[in-house]
Structure formats: C-alpha cells, structure tokens
Design brief:
The chain is 31% helix and 26% strand. β4, α4 and β5 form a beta-alpha-beta unit. It has 13 helices and 18 strands. The protein is globular, with a radius of gyration of 21 Å. Strands 10, 11, 12, 13, 14, 15, 16, 17 and 18 form a 9-stranded antiparallel β-sheet that branches. A 5-stranded parallel β-sheet has the order 3-2-1-4-5, sandwiched between helices. Strands 6-9-7-8 form a 4-stranded antiparallel β-sheet, sandwiched between helices. The chain is α+β, with helices and mostly antiparallel strands. The structure holds adenosine-5'-triphosphate (ATP) and magnesium ion (2 copies). Adenosine-5'-triphosphate binds next to β15.
Length: 386
C-alpha cells in the first residue's frame, strides 16, 4: 500500500491495535515506549525506540525514523513534538501538537470548547486552598467535583466533594496537582461518540454509544446507545461540532452526559482511539484504529465507513479488567470463546487488579441477544440460548 512509516508515542493497548490496523494496509509502525510494551510485542522490529514519550531525545529519535508521528496517549511532551516539527519540516504530526496541548489540560480544554459554543459541564479554576473550594461550594452547591487539570485517567484525578467536610480530604487526595472544579452533572446516561477528522477538515461520526463505568473505569459499552434516535443524532452532531474546533487530523473520543431534560453536555475529549470505540473492530466496516491510520496517512475515508456493519448490528463491549486473583479475568475470556459472535482481545499485559487486560466484543442482531451472551460471559447464566 503506502510507503509511509508511522511512529507511535506510546505502546499500550491502543498502540497495539493501531499497529494491527496499520499492518493490514502494509503500513510500517515504529513504537516509542518501554521494551516489550503491548504494541511492540506484535511488531518484531529492531527500530523501535526504548524510552519515554515524555523524553525529548527519545521523541526526536523516533521522529528521525518516520514520515508521520501519532500518539496513543495525550499525556506526552508536546514541546518535544514542536521541536521535532522544526528539526524535520516534512514530518506530519497528527493530532497536531496545538490540539494535544489544548486537550492535555482539562480546564483549558473546557475553555476552548466554551469559546467554540460547545456545551460542557460548568467548570471553574480554583486555588488549592479551603477558602477557594468553599467559594465553589457556595456557587455550585454540593456535591461538586474537584478534578486534576492534567495527567488524569480512569477517574484517578477526580474527587467528589459531597459536603463542606470533604474539602480538606479533596485537597489532600489531589495534593500538589493543578486543580479545577466542576458542577455535578445529574446525568441519566453517559454517551460517547468516536469522530474521525480528515486532513481536509472533514469530520465523520461513528454511532452514539452508551458507556457504563464502574469505579470510574469503563466497564461496558452498548452500541448503539439505548436512547431515542433523536438523541443518537444530537450526540453525533455535538461530537462532530466539538471535534471540528480542534485543528489537525485523526480519531477523537468524545464523552458526554445525557441529562434528565434531554440536554447533552460534553464531559471530555480524547485526541486518540478510545475505550468506548473498541466495539468498532467487529461492529463497523472500518475500525476506529483503521480510521485513525487512514486519516493521518491521507488515505480515503469513503461514504458510510463509520456506520455499523448492518442495520441490525447490536454490539456490547466488555472490558476485561484484572481481578484480585491473578489471571482470574481469563474465566470471562474462556466463556467468550464459547459464545457465538463474541471476540476476545488480550493486550499482553501482566495481570494486576483493575488493570485493563483486554476486552470482549459481542455482536448480535438484537441488543437482547447480545445481553444474553453478556450474562453468560459474566457467569450470571448457564446458557446464552433464549
Ligand atoms: P478517562 O479515563 O475517561 O480519561 P478521567 O480520569 O479523565 O477519565 P472523567 O472522565 O473526568 O475522568 O470522569 C470519570 C467519570 O466520573 C465520568 O465518566 C463520570 O462517570 C464521572 N464524572 C466526571 N465528571 C462528572 C461530573 N461533573 N458530574 C457527575 N459525574 C462526573
Ligand atoms: Mg480523561
Ligand atoms: Mg473520561
């Protein structure tokens, strides 16, 4: 296919699945991360860079070997990317460093979205003092969320302030991190939409999905979301408008809250493949990973490529998280292997409690059938037959 080489900052499961999609198109990938990271395991090359996506020298080393640079995680050294662009003017970097920078700080991300007239959860910047948080409590009421502006994932940078008495606990929990506060969103559901942006500034939305979190970690994804068609469409339009405001190309994950009055608010945006888009591997003609590769290497993105494979496709994605007992998560994987229409993806990681070890995609012609298969995989029922 194309004689381009793509460099990936980060070699976790998202990098691994980008590598898989690229290889199907004969696109070579070189990965920067620790030795034997998940993406390197399936990509036997001597050229990989062992190091960190925060280290300028390592990033420049990767940049010297590739035509296009991309990321599988937003918590990277953007100044080094800007330097790489100066040193290698022909290098393409997607998403563009400016976009990564805007998104890295969740509060700046919110300000950017507000400036572009996109509805977000109401937020305010705070000082790391009790007085500052008391003011927030008076304006937003309780509960409200205290959030780390940077380096957040899986809710680890979040603290729910339930009452005045929690203010100090919140400061202690997130000590020494830059913070902002967010109004509590009384959502009925959490929705998400993957949006791919082409270098020509076109945006294409994947179906609207419903995400179910447990302990702040994505547990299940229902595709399509079990909401009225008008909400599905509204969420896709909101996600497209949001992604249109960020320059550059590539795939974006847009997380949203659906409120009781039907209003949609954006929670946050990820400038990369996203956990809520893993279902696309089996449920759509083109996966989120292939869409990303196509967008950043300027390959075609034809009509309807983001659609579900058929009008009857109903998918559930189950995250496989490490259990307290080492390898206990493999029980669900074995059940999934016995289930028609289920596919197992394991990431090559060492088992650890609550670590994202893999995921399972379940595809059926009705959501009821997918739910029956899910109950069987989770060990709640003995059979997936009706
Ligand atoms: P991710 O792993 O998705 O990057 P994160 O650490 O950036 O997560 P958020 O997405 O900000 O964290 O929050 C994690 C979860 O906490 C949300 O999916 C939602 O369930 C809940 N949450 C976050 N903000 C709010 C809010 N303002 N009101 C109510 N619930 C919230
Ligand atoms: Mg986040
Ligand atoms: Mg989130």
């Amino acid at each position: 296919m194309e004689s381009v080489t793509v460099g990936i900052l980060g070699g976790g499961q998202l990098g691994r699945m980008i590598v898989e999609a690229a290889h199907r198109l004969n696109i070579k990938t070189i990965v920067l991360d620790a030795p034997n990271s998940p993406a390197k395991q399936i990509n036997a090359l001597d050229e990989h860079v062992d190091g960190s996506f925060n280290n300028e020298e390592d990033i420049l080393k990767l940049a010297s070997k590739v035509d296009v640079l991309t990321i599988e995680i937003e918590h990277i050294n953007t100044d080094a990317l800007i330097k790489a662009q100066e040193v290698y003017p022909n290098l393409k970097i997607y998403p563009v460093p400016e976009t990564i920078k805007l998104i890295q700080d969740k509060y700046i991300q919110k300000l950017h979205l507000i400036k572009n007239e996109i509805k977000v959860t109401e937020s305010v910047s705070v000082e790391n003092t009790i007085e500052s948080l008391q003011e927030v409590g008076e304006t937003f009421g309780y509960p409200f969320l205290l959030k780390a502006r940077t380096l957040a994932y899986d809710g680890r940078g979040n603290f729910v302030v339930k009452t005045k008495d929690d203010l100090q606990k919140g400061l202690d929990f997130l000590s020494n991190r830059p913070l902002y506060a967010e109004k509590f969103a009384p959502f009925t559901k959490e929705l998400a939409v993957m949006v791919v942006r082409s270098p020509k500034d076109e945006v294409f939305a994947y179906p609207t999905v419903e995400t179910i979190h447990e302990n702040n970690i994505c547990h299940l994804v229902y595709a399509p979301a079990k909401v009225p068609g008008s909400v599905l469409l509204k969420a896709q339009n909101l996600a497209k408008a949001a992604v249109k405001s960020f320059p550059g190309a590539g795939i974006f994950g847009v997380e949203m809250f659906l409120l009781t009055n039907g209003e949609l608010l954006i929670n946050e945006i990820a400038p990369r493949p996203h956990n809520s888009g893993h279902y696309t591997i089996d449920a759509c003609a083109t996966s989120q990973f292939e869409a990303h590769i196509r967008a950043i290497t300027e390959l075609p993105l034809p009509r309807n490529f983001t659609k579900l494979s058929t009008s009857e496709t109903n998918a559930i994605m189950l995250n496989v998280l490490g259990t307290k007992e080492p390898n206990g998560e493999l029980v669900a994987c074995k059940k999934a292997l016995e289930t028609p229409g289920a596919s197992v993806y394991l990431y090559g990681k060492t088992t650890r409690f609550e670590r994202k070890m893999g995921h399972i995609n379940i595809i059926s012609s009705s959501m009821k059938e997918s739910e029956r298969k899910l109950s069987f995989i989770l060990g709640e029922t003995q059979t997936f037959e009706e």
